[in-house]
Each structure stands twice: as C-alpha cells, then as structure tokens.
Amino acid sequence: MVAIVNALTPVLALILLGFIIKRSEFIPNSFWPSAEKLTYYLLMPATLIHSLAGKDIGSSPWFNILLTIWGAALASVVFVGLSWLTHRRMGGPVFTSLFQGGVRFNTFVALALAESLFGKEGLFLASLGAGFMILIVNVLTVSAFSVAVGSGGLDVRRISRDLMRNPLIWGCVLGIGLNISGLKLPVALDGSLVLLGKAAFPVGLLAVGAAYQAGNIVRHWQPIVASCGIQFFCKPVVAWWLAAATGLSGVAAGVAVLIFSVPTAPTAYILSRQMGGDHDSMAVIITIQTCLSFVTLPLTLWLLSS
Fold first, then answer.
1. What is the rounded CA–CA span in Å between residue 37 and residue 49?
2. Looking at residue 101, which CATH number applies to its domain?
3. Residues near 242 by Cβ (< 8 Å), separated by ≥ 6?
4. What is the DSSP string of 209-262?
5. Cα–Cα distance between 128 and 120 in angstroms, integer?
6. What pTM does this model have?
7. Membrane-spanning residues where (predicted)?
8. Residues 6 or more apart whose Cβ sits within 8 Å of residue 69
9. What is the DSSP annotation of 255-300?
C-alpha cells in the first residue's frame, strides 16, 4: 500500500498545484496553451525517444510480453467501442476522452510501482512493456481522433496524414529505429533528451489541474463511469488471461497485469487539447481515475497475489 501511495501522491499533488495556480492567477492564462504546445511537440517526443532507444531486450520473454500488451490494448479498444454503442448521443470530442480514458495508461505510476513491488527485474520488464504499449496506444489514439473529430468516417488518407505528422508517433518511430539499429545516441544528446523528458510529466499534470472544473463530473458522468470500468476491471482481467495464455509467469505476469491496472495518462489531456478533443471531460477523467486508483490498485494487487 505504501508503494501505491508514494507513486500516486505526486500525481495528485501536481494536479492540485495546477488547479491552485490557475485559480490564483499567479501565472497569466496565456501561459497554459503555450505550455501544452511545448509539451506536445517537444517534451513528450523527447521522453519517447529516450525510453524506447535505450531498452535492451536481451533474453527476456519479450515476444510473450508483446502479445499480452498488444492483445490487451486491442481488447480495450473493443470495450470502448461497446461502451460507445450504449451511449450513442456522445459527441465525437467526448468519445475521444472515453477512448483515452479506457486505452491509455500512466507510465510513471506503472514504472514506479513495478520497481517498488518487483525490484530491478520488474522495472526492466515494465519499461519493456511500456515501450510496446506506447507505440500501439499512440497509433490507436491518433486514429481515433482522426475518425471521431474529423469527418466522422473512416478516411484512410486523413488517418495516414495525421499519423505522419503526429510528433508522438515520430518519437516512437525514432526510438524504436535506434533500438533496432543498435545505434547509441551521443551522451550529450541523450542527456538533453532526459532533461526534456523529465519536464513533460510535471508540465502535463499542472495543465490538467489548471483545466479541472468540479462541475464537469456531473456533466460527463457517462464517459467517466465507462472509462473507469474499462480501466480498472476489464483491462486487468484481459491482461491476466493473456499473460496466462502466452505462458508468462512470476514477475513478468505481474508486471503485465500492473501496466493495465493503473489510471490513464496525464498526457491524454495535452493530446486532447492539440487534436480537438473535449479537454474538459479528459481533465476530469484523469483526476477521477487517479483518485480511484488509491482503492482499485491495492485490490488488484491483492487479487493478483492470491
């Protein structure tokens, strides 16, 4: 329980700080759109390149982890689609919040918990799984935005165009390309990426807090309930089943389930702002899921250990 509190408290603290800063008008309102743009186009791609380029797969059960991660991610898309069918009045922008709330995951919390619970081996396997997850989640999310916020139909050319010019996709492609090629980034360049990446998380959380409005809980209760059900029940169950089906066991299985048990990513808010989603509903989903995970994560880990 201590590990969970230590991992989640900084997340909530920064959201609260962003809320206070915005309401106190300590910083001009014009700061927040600029901060979001900086995070989206520079800080987030930097951390993706660094994290994906530096993974050494070695003798780990990487293929089984890949099958589990991608299988559970695709299953979460199906769950989101089924939820949308029961709420057909939900507009496209709000649907993107439901999508991100049910598909994305908080990398920071997952890695922190993996290290606290499973040590260095857990941290390595969680980093490997997060790398696989980051790539497919960004492709799926950008595609969802292209369909829901665009023409409302499956426009392959539009989706391809959005994928090609999305900085997060480029971060994933460059990171994986460097990993596969075996090329090492110069120490100075890698150090610069590390520093830029460290800024992405706090700036993103501050922006979430700045956008948070309590009234949005009632206004957007449907995507909140649906995304929480998918995030904290459906995904862990599917991940557990797939881990068993692919032969994962021990720490590898525990890490796979853990990745699909954490709340959604704070960076989902930045993506929502930049791609025309409903950022108000996204901010409240991130906040509610982070609060609920104080209860759901201990329960999931207890069931996993049993």
1. 18
2. 1.20.1530.20
3. 67, 68, 71, 72, 256
4. HHH--TTHHHHTHHHHHHHHHIIIIIHHHHHHHHHHHTT--HHHHHHHHHHTTS
5. 12
6. 0.80
7. 62-85, 97-118, 124-147, 168-187, 193-212, 249-271, 283-304
8. 129, 132, 133, 136, 256, 259
9. HHHHHTTSPPPTHHHHHHHHHT--HHHHHHHHHHHHHHHHHHHHHH
Residue 152 is classified by DSSP as S
Per residue in 230-252, pLDDT (tens digit) is 999 999 999 999 999 999 988 89
Residue matched to tokens 């596969």:
180
Q: Which residue has the tokens 């994928």?
A: 163
Residue type, 2: V
Residue type, 64: N
- What is the three-class DSSP state of 154? coil
CA 273-276-279 angle, to 5 degrees, is 45
Owning domain of residue 219: 2-305
- Confidence (pLDDT) at 76: 95
Please report the pLDDT score of residue 242 as a whole number: 95
* Tokens 């250990």 sit on residue: 305
Q: Which residues contact 284 (CB under 8 A, 6 or more apart)?
A: 212, 213, 216, 217, 220, 224
Pair 265, 285: CB distance under 8 Å: no
180's enclosing H/E stretch is helix 167-181
Quick one: CA dihedral 84, 90, 96, 101, positive or negative? negative
Measured CA to CA, the distance from residue 36 to residue 269 in angstroms comes to: 9
**Number of separate domains in the chain:** 1
